[in-house]
Design brief:
Number of strands: 6
Helix content: 55-70%
Number of domains: 1
Distance between the termini: 64 Å
Structural class: alpha/beta
Strand order of the largest sheet: 1-2-3-4-6-5
Number of helices: 10
Largest sheet: 6 strands, mixed
Length: 252
């Protein structure tokens, strides 16, 4: 395993974190109010939200939170692959469901990278196990003697290393970053470069968010507020969830 200078990681992060911020703004600009109003209206009614601006801001934050988790997960996946390519001769995998492959001596590691520990329902874990099995069988067809190890790598979290019931290892947080780099402290060392120009990027994002929020709040008031200014919750819920067609169905 090769040592990796922290400046190399910093340079990679500084260059590529920009794309995450650009995607955040691009995602904002593609939004329209009909997409936003698919979020759960019952939740905000239960929280006694009665201001159109507050409601739209809540919808927008909920939407952005889920989309940003995915976008930032893609960034962390790329970072892990890059580090492994420099330290362990790793490479991005072309196999279905596999992100990273590392071949060392008589061992071949197949690694699927996810962001947080909450990833995956039972069906998704079953699918991952199937992907690992298929990729492993293909490898053994070419080299029956090589040992194949399958790993679910989680970028953050405190769960201890374990062998999943589906047959693959689960490496989380510090353990995962140590595995791909050989550096037991890497999980802490990457936090500073990830914040590269964060204030500058976020100021631009908040400016764009304000524009979108103002525009959509005006559209919402026009379409979903009563003459007295109150939110027409019946109309909003009808748009969000109205789909009655049970008269067409005959349950047996």
């Amino acid at each position: 395993m090769d040592n990796l200078d922290n400046q190399v990681i910093t340079d990679y992060v500084n260059k590529n974190i920009v794309f995450f911020h650009e995607k955040r703004i691009e995602r904002l600009k593609k939004l329209n109010i009909n997409i936003l109003l698919k979020k759960n209206p019952y939740l905000f009614k239960a929280k006694n939200v009665e201001s159109a601006g507050e409601l739209l801001n809540g919808f927008l934050d909920a939407f952005l939170s889920s989309s940003e988790e995915k976008m930032f997960g893609d960034f962390l996946e790329g970072l892990a692959i890059y580090i492994a390519s420099k330290t362990r001769n790793g490479h991005k995998s072309a196999s279905m469901g596999i992100d990273l492959e590392i071949i060392e001596d008589s061992s071949h590691y197949l690694i699927s990278i996810k962001s947080g520990t909450n990833w995956g329902n039972n069906a998704q874990h079953n699918k991952l196990a199937q992907d690992f099995d298929l990729a492993g069988r293909i490898i053994h067809q070419h080299n029956p003697q090589i040992r194949v190890f399958t790993i679910l790598g989680i970028c953050y979290g405190k769960t201890q290393t374990s062998l999943h019931t589906k047959g693959y290892w689960k490496l989380v947080g510090q353990n995962f970053w140590t595995f791909v780099s050989g550096n037991i402290s890497l999980y802490k060392e990457i936090i500073e470069p990830i914040g590269f120009r964060a204030k500058q990027h976020n100021e631009q994002f908040m400016k764009e968010k304000g524009k979108i929020l103002n525009k959509m709040t005006g559209e919402f008031i026009s379409a979903y507020c009563k003459n007295d200014g109150g939110i027409d919750w019946n109309k909003l819920v009808e748009f969000n969830s109205g789909n009655y067609d049970l008269e067409k169905i005959r349950f047996i």
